[in-house]
Amino acid sequence: MTRSELDFYRNKLTTLIRRVGADRHDLRLAAMQAVGGDRGSAVMDAPTSTVDPGTAAGDEFLALSLLPTEEHLLAECGAALERIERGVFGMCERCSRPIARERLKAVPYARHCVPCVHALEAEAG
Fold this sequence. Notes:
- The chain is mostly helical.
- It folds into two domains: 3-88; 90-125, no CATH class.
- 65% of the residues lie in helices and 0% in strands.
- The protein contains four helices and no strands.
- The chain has helices spanning 3-32, 53-86, 101-106, 114-124.
- Helix 1 (3-32) packs antiparallel against helix 2 (53-86).
């Protein structure tokens, strides 16, 4: 892979890390946001709030459920940047063949080529 290609993927990963990091921050704030303000996180703390407690609790649950996905994506992007530094970026971790450029453009943190992804999915059941 050329230096300019690696720079392209490094920039793409860095941008993704910034975006996902900001999203993660917003999700954490939403998860911690109390229905009635700053008094805590319990839905029952806000009897005079105009916010529907059921909706607020659902929003809090959604934010909490999305956080692990955001954390995983950040970790994968960081690992991809490490692979760039080690000189193994774009090589499948399973078969050691190059990962298609089209796949890397769509999923710059990809660890496996498409055939290996299918094989891993089949093995997982």
